[in-house]
Amino acid sequence: MNFNTYLSNFSKNFTEELINIIPTSDLNTSNLKKAIVYTIKVGGKRLRPLLVMETSKILGVKRDYAIRVASSVEFIHCYSLVHDDLPSMDNDDLRRGNLTCHKKFNEATAILVGDALQSISFEILSDLKTHKDGNVRSKLVNELAKCAGYSGMVEGQMQDLEAEKKNLKINEIKKLQDLKTGKLFHFSCTAATILSQQEDKYYRKFQKFSKNLGLAFQIKDDILDIEGDEKKMGKKVRKDVSLGKETFISLKGIEDSKKYAELLIEEAIEIISIFGKSSDILIKICRMIMKRSK
Ligand code: GRG
Asked: Do 79 and 208 touch, CB atoms closer than 8 A?
């Protein structure tokens, strides 16, 4: 099976997992659940859950535990996209080739969908079904809170909004991207070390792997913003240029940025190769990051 087919099968199957894991409540008589299910069903690559599942396989984590952690990070990711698309942020009409949540429903619903997805994520992590050991659950909650919120993705988004008025230097751009994009990659790649209670042995390795992957992913995203095809990507492109935002590309040029991202990917592959055959899918993910067209 070619890797693109593997990825699209994973994404389809994982969407079912996400729908099934949404907590049931007979209190939901409003449109909230309908809007959440819409947001989940429009799909996406499900790259972060795949990273959780593959690192968990390597470290021998139970599949049932891994699926719950993988779902929690994807719910945070989906919430961030819904809020990012709002008129007060990126003001986008299309996401994953479909109407954005606020266009399909309305702005208030989209804000509430994001809020609910965020709390669902922590509801899942803190549930006994996620791990029998309370210390492990508590560590996962703490890590995800740090990666997603005030000291992570939300701060990155704030710095990104402010970047429109500033001429950022390369290190400031790297920091911003590490917060906005890298932190969820970090959680996705290191959660298995917590789940398997092997942080002492593996946390740093997976942290370095995720750092390279996250930055390369963001550089490729900036390249796609310039060279990408709006139809294939299912969202608006050339946004950074039109906003006059400094990016890795605007400072280093497209060729040097590509070379740098490829170097980061080769380093990531070297780190993960120590696990032999069981790292095959992670290595394929690394290569896909630079080849992807969406
Ligand atoms: C609103 C708190 C808040 C945060 C938003 C994630 C984000 C921060 C903004 C989205 C805009 C953007 C370009 C972020 C960089 C990260 C990124 C490339 C997200 C898209 O991730 P993919 O490509 O998306 O994995 P799919 O649709 O495949 O899941």
From this structure: no
Long-range contacts of the stretch 172-179 (C-beta < 8 A, 24+): 173/246, 173/247, 173/248, 173/251, 174/215, 174/248, 177/214, 177/215, 177/218, 177/248, 178/211, 178/214, 178/215, 179/152, 179/153, 179/155
- Ligand 1 pocket, residue 177 CB under 6 Å: no
Residue pLDDT, tens place only, 95-131: 888 999 999 999 999 999 999 999 999 999 999 999 9
Residue with CA nearest ligand 1 atom 4: 80
Domain ranges, residue 26: 3-291
pLDDT tens sequence across 47-58: 999 999 999 999
Q: Domain holding 245: CATH number? A: 1.10.600.10
Quote the ligand 1 centre to 258 CA distance (angstroms).
Answer: 20
Q: Could you give the number of structural domains in the chain?
A: 1
- Give the SS3 label for residue 124: helix
| Closest C-alpha among 50, 79, 80, 81 to residue 67 | 50
Cα-Cα-Cα-Cα torsion 82, 83, 86, 89, nearest 10 degrees, comes to -140
Q: Is the CB of 45 under 6 A from ligand 1?
A: yes
Output the CA torsion sign for 218, 159, 70, 104: negative
For ligand 1, the distance from its centroid to the CA atom of residue 200, given in whole angstroms, is: 30
* Strand (E) or helix (H) holding 192: helix 183-195
Shortest-distance atom of ligand 1 to CA 181: 16
> What element of type H or E holds 99?
strand 98-99
Region class of 276: left (phi > 0), else alpha (psi between -120 and 50), else beta: left
Is 186 in contact with 207 (CB distance < 8 Å)?
yes
